[in-house]
Write a structure and sequence with these properties.
Length: 556
């Protein structure tokens, strides 16, 4: 840390994903926690929503003695309902979980206050807006109470809010406790994600889009409003990549004060013998499931590839990945068998009983030399006929027949070790792959390819991801031979991207064992550049910006 930077005495961070594993923001916060704990021991306090009252939350360790006097004061005098403990992750930072339900009765007054002070438009709210806003407001009240009871104006305090869901808390604190420096981080603009998700071209027309106008057109006015007003009023506005910063400039009319690149920790990447043993176990599990589902006898020489993430069919590039696999299946230059796993949680119903019969009861009621019905999926879905992945596979005419060199298996469940078919965690599952593909159209950062290379798995991604752009900025990185292939992607080069993915897989399939080992080592080396010990300095600079601007704000 540069000694001239202002350093906070206390750091509060609030997010919907504190002790609540939903998506990429959970990874940002949980992997960074140890680094901040090392520099600000127990002065880093995370605030999350308490969904688990009366139930066991494996991510939260409640400790009644932590800040007990303040907790009693907050409950009696500030009418706050909180639980205090530690986040059950590496570093074990202090966490305050808040029950925000009591604030719904004050919703109209809270929204009126936000409009009067900051012109936040909540009139068009729907869906999860109210729930998120009440949590955000409750988070602000928690920090206000904590500050007034435990701290003084001599303490340098930073409050960082993540995504539009927590913006209201930052705005509240600027009025209630102006001594606290506020930071707002958008991980993806609500309008940018909505434009791309609604199949509108985002990049070619970005400079022509008006964020307020698009918010009205896409029925996103309230979410856009809280995001935009928070970005304009906090002491330090941040985002996670240069590509998302372009969105901020055009759609929020505000560039970030600093870009906070998403780092990673490699604490849970297995070492040497443990790595090899887990990789062998994962591959054996995947090949066994594939053979039972497909009625095949695929060997360990099979090329295992994957994509994974949220079920955003276009944004995550699932569509173009399927297109590339279909092209690959018709390419006579492919000499290896390929099994592509699509690990995307969907509306699952149950693990397939016919597949379970083959896995655990011999052949069950079927002949294991023949494929099962619908040989593309491991768990039955609630609405099979409406599923985009299955429908595209069908429209492409792919069969998963024995003659096909390329076979696709859709795994529509969370790989938490208890899915009923694989019963293996995602990271242990990841170890078994040879190659991963994440051809995203809209991806502000991209943790999945970063996780892949950290686990020594070469990956293919695009230059429409923050991660892909970062890789391109590294002088020693020159394509898949160095662990990562970054494919150029635009609004209108869908088939070119599919062809480039196909060529990358085809090239990889022809590599020798020695060449693949080199690529795996280069991938891991690249991941080391993204460790939090390197990227945390961006946060220290953000704290400095926020603290200095807060001081100036108070003098006005």
């Amino acid at each position: 840390m540069v000694s001239t930077l202002l350093n906070p005495d206390y750091i509060f961070e609030t997010s919907w994903e504190v002790c609540n594993k939903v998506g990429g923001i959970y990874t940002v916060l949980s992997t960074r926690a140890k680094t901040l704990q090392d520099s600000h021991k127990d002065k880093v306090i995370f605030i999350g929503p308490d969904f688990w009252i009366g139930k066991d939350n494996p991510l939260f360790i409640e400790l009644d003695y932590l800040y007990k006097p303040w907790k009693m004061h907050a409950e009696a005098n500030d009418k706050l309902s909180v639980r205090i403990g530690r986040w059950n992750i590496i570093g074990e930072p202090i966490v305050i979980l808040v029950d925000f339900n009591s604030f719904f009765s004050m919703k109209d007054e809270i929204y009126t206050e936000a409009w009067n002070h900051y012109q936040v438009d909540s009139l068009h709210a729907y869906g999860d807006y109210d729930e998120a806003s009440m949590f955000a407001y409750a988070s602000g009240k928690v920090v206000e109470s904590f500050y007034k009871y435990n701290l003084t104006c001599k303490d340098r305090v930073v409050f960082q809010a993540h995504e539009w869901m927590t913006g209201l808390g930052a705005l509240y604190l600027q009025k209630a406790v102006p001594e606290i420096a506020t930071i707002f981080t958008t991980h993806a603009t609500s309008i940018g994600r909505s434009i791309s998700g609604n199949l509108k071209p985002l990049y070619d027309y970005l400079s022509a889009y008006n964020g307020d106008q698009m918010a009205h057109e896409l029925n996103m006015e309230s979410k856009h409003s809280i995001e935009k007003q928070t970005a304009h009023h906090v002491d330090c506005f941040t985002t996670v990549s240069d590509i998302t910063n372009k969105e901020c400039k055009e759609l929020l009319d505000k560039e970030a004060d600093i870009v906070l690149k998403n780092g990673f920790e490699d604490d849970f990447v297995p070492k040497s013998k443990s790595y090899s043993a887990k990789r062998e176990k994962a591959r054996a599990k995947m090949l066994n499931v594939a053979n039972k589902l497909l009625g095949t006898k695929l060997t360990d020489d099979t090329l295992l590839i994957c994509t994974s993430g949220r079920y955003e069919f276009k944004n995550k590039g699932i569509d173009v990945f399927l297109e590339s696999l279909n092209q690959l299946n018709h390419d006579t230059n492919l000499k290896k068998d390929v099994v592509a796993f699509i690990n995307v949680p969907a509306g699952i119903l149950v693990p397939r009983k016919d597949l379970l019969d083959r896995l655990y009861n011999g052949n069950g009621n079927g002949n294991s030399t023949e494929p099962l019905e619908v040989p593309f999926i491991t768990h039955w879905l609630d609405y099979m006929s409406d599923d985009k992945i299955l429908n595209m596979i069908n429209n492409l005419g792919m069969k998963n027949s024995k003659e096909d060199k390329v076979k696709i298996i859709f795994v529509p469940c969370y790989l938490d070790g208890n899915d009923g078919i694989f019963d293996i965690s995602y990271y242990d599952f990841l170890l078994g792959y040879d190659l991963s593909v994440y051809p995203s159209y809209y991806e502000p950062w991209g943790y999945t390819p970063l996780e892949s290379v950290a686990f020594h798995i070469p990956t293919v991604t695009t230059d429409l991801t923050g991660f892909g752009l970062w890789v391109k900025s590294i002088r020693t990185q020159h394509g898949i031979n160095d662990g990562v292939e970054v494919i150029h992607r635009s609004d209108d080069n869908y088939f070119e991207v599919a062809d480039a993915i196909k060529e990358s897989i085809l090239s990889f399939s022809a590599k020798s064992l020695e060449e693949i080992e080199h690529m795996r080592n280069r991938a891991a080396t690249l991941a080391e550049h993204a460790l939090w010990k390197h990227f945390i300095n961006y946060y220290y600079k953000a704290y400095d910006i926020a603290l200095r601007n807060a001081k100036e704000r108070q003098l006005k």
